[in-house]
Every structure is written in C-alpha cells, then in structure tokens.
Amino acid sequence: MKKILVLISILIIFLLVTGCTQPTGQTSQSTSANTVSSPVQQVLAKVEVYGNIADIGLPIYAHLMDGRKQEYVLAKTTTAELDKSGRKYIIIDPDTRDISYAIALKHNADCKVPVNYCSAIILDDGKHLILRAPAGQKKLIASADLDFNWLPDTPLRLIPRSSLKLGSRTGSGVTYDTHIGGMVSAVRQDTLSSLVGELSGEQPIMVDGEKVTITSRATESGETIKKATQYFGNYLAARNLTVEYPQWTSDDYSGTNVIGTKTGKTKPLEVVLVTAHIDTEPSAGRSPGADDDASGVAAVMLIADLTSRQDFDRTIRFAAFSGEEQGLLGSDAYARQAAKNDELIVAVYNMDMISWNQNSNVAEIHTRIPSNPGYEGDMEIANVFTDVVSKYDLSGDINPVILSDGEELSDQASFWEQGYPGIWALEDGNNDFNPYYHSQDDLHEKMNMKYYTAYVKASTATVAHLAGISG
What we know:
Layout: H1 2-18, E1 43-48, E2 60-65, E3 71-77, H2 79-85, E4 89-93, E5 99-105, E6 121-124, E7 128-134, H3 138-142, E8 148-150, H4 178-185, H5 189-199, E9 205-207, E10 210-212, H6 223-237, E11 242-244, E12 247-250, E13 253-256, E14 258-262, E15 267-277, H7 290-307, E16 314-321, H8 329-340, E17 344-351, E18 362-366, H9 375-391, E19 399-403, H10 412-417, E20 422-426, H11 449-467
C-alpha cells in the first residue's frame, strides 16, 4: 500500500509540474482578477486589440492574427494590470514562473507535439498553437518538427528604433536604374542551380582545400553544418567582403552565424540586412533542405556577388543564420546584440523558402499587422519589392502579394521584436505549400527554377534600391 501511495504522489507532482491537469488545447479563462494567481504573480493572457497596440499599456510579447484574421496580443503581467488596462482578456496560463512559451503554426502540427507532453498546447487560435515549456523541457518542443518561434524573454519594442525614411530613391515609386537592371540581367538560372546543388548535397564542394558533400545542414549535424557555414563565408570573402562568424548558445543548442559586410560609401552607419537560414530539417539522416532554405541562402550568395561590384550609399550585410529550425535562435542572438549596440538597421530582407511553385506565381511578402507601430517601416520595404517587379519586367513570372499578418515564424521576427523594420519573402505558403517540407525529399530537382530565378531577380533589385546606388 505504501508503494502505491508513493507512486500516486509522484504522479500528482508530475501532473502539477507539467500542467497535464488540463486537456490539450483548453485554456484557463478570465475577464477579471478572480483567478488562482496572487496579485503580484504574472500570468500569460490573450488580450483583445483595437487601435494601435502601443496604446494598450501592457507588456506585449507577441502580436498575432488568428484563423479568423482577428488580431490579438499576448501579455505577460499581473491580473491587476490587466484589469487596469480595461481590455477584455483571457488568461491562458495563470503562473509564468520558470516557463517558456512557443508559437507554432498549425499547418504541420498534427501528431507532432510529443505525446508525453500532454498539455503543451495552452491555446489554439485556429492558425497558431501556443505551447508551454516548463524549465528543462524547451528541447522537447524544439525537437517536435514544428514551425515555431519562442516568445521573447522581454516585451516587444513597440517604438521603432529609427524614424528614418528610406527616401524617394528607395521608397514607393521606384524608378528604373540601368546599373540595377544590369544586376537583374546577371541573375542566371544555371548559377543558382549550381549553388543550390552544392548546398543541398547534390554535388561536392571544396571547403578550405577539402572536397566535401553537405549531406545535412541540421543544427546538430556536427561537421557538415560547420562545412556549410564555412563554404558560405568563403564565398563572401572571395567577393572582398569582411566576414565574421559570431557564435551563439541557447539552452541545449549552439551554433555559428556567418555575416559578410560591404560598407556603404555615404551612409555607412545605415545597414540593409539580407538574410536566410542555413540550417535544415529533418534533424537526423539526410537533410538536403533545397527549398528550406538553400533557396534563400543561394539567393543571399548571388546577391552578394552582384552587389560586390558596385558602390552603394548604405552598408549591406549578408547573413546566414543557424538555429532557425529550433526557434530562430541564431537570428535572435544577432538581433539582440544589434539592438544592444544601437545599430541602425534600416531594412531586413529575409528570404526563407522562395523556390516552390506548382500552380501559382505568388510571392508572399509578410509585414507586421497595421496596428503595430513598426508596420510603416515594413511597408516601405514591401513597396520597393512590388515596384521592382513592375519596373524590371518580372511580373510575368512572379506575382507579389503583401500579407500584413505579422507572421513571425522566420528570422525577420527576431528583428521585429527589437524594433527593426523587415519583411519575410516567401513562396505561396497559403495556397501552394511545399509537400516535401522538412523531409529528405526537399530536393533541388523539385524546385521551380524559372519562378525561383525571377524571385531572386526581384530580390536583387530590391536590395540594390534599398541600399541606394552611390554616385
């Protein structure tokens, strides 16, 4: 009998610690301070939005749009402060102590949340899942093969870091530039094909005099991810860019970002950041990641090559972030450091999955939601993209669609959190989703090279106009 009582006690403690006392997908709800939390204990709440979110007056940690296209914010604060705000709210976790939270997309979440973590899901909004990870269990979420981002440790910066306008030369109403037109014409399908083939392990590469095949770029793949990052860095260094390899650590993960810099001539402190993520899924076995995200990395490489031959007003930085698949870990570390250094990043152009096209020429450009103070800066970048598609005669192969939905499941979100303007350039993720995503079949041969080449042409022109031709 004693043994049975001991086992029951252990089980009760386990359920209390992991939150398994609630069925998956259900929430603790309240519109008042009458909760189990103490007056000073912080809760996680879903709060309604009307007007500018900066006027809510609460520490906001995420700004999302649900499956019905209704926006809301996640606030971490006390019930007293929630009541004081006058907003309707739902408490989805009454105790945030020693807890991390993840925001995941539902599209690939079925049966992928670990079954032994029975109440990880604390909110299902029809589009996203909010997941709860007690101390020591973050890696359980990160290993679940989800599209996700961690809720930041500090509130979103709602005041943009700079009110700098990109100017008439780079804003809406872009005019054709012959130098940029030459760069666009120089984007060749065979060059992109070769770069993607090398990154995805279709053909061997030379890294520091050694012939290697990149069979995986998974964060924990060891030597192969190291070779891939070195390959990217060597490519940039060969174009006379200054190359750095900042390292990061986060809980059970670590990795290396690669940053190449071309210093601007007249506005060197103003930075246009061109990004993609170099890591892949699946995490074990062969992990080619051709579309996700060799397509983005190869685009960054080719844009670096073409812009290296021309002077620009602003500094251009080219980044390959690692740890993206584990919750944007590499870009988060970089963005936090940039904010700490008060760097003046005027535009983040992030490319993640830009080569799949089976039945649509749509190119999605994701910005923050209009009620977010950072929306205007994002839209400047998005408008440059739509303008160059028209001005450089690319509309027959690519159809830009701006989605102001605040979708934050790629690396631009790390910069949004710090108050920097940015966009996510993506293929048609809503209506033509890549069925080989996160599988060993995400291969070069399945890419739509005509569409992909047009996307890179438009991206090249966008970056060039954002940086501004010098002279």
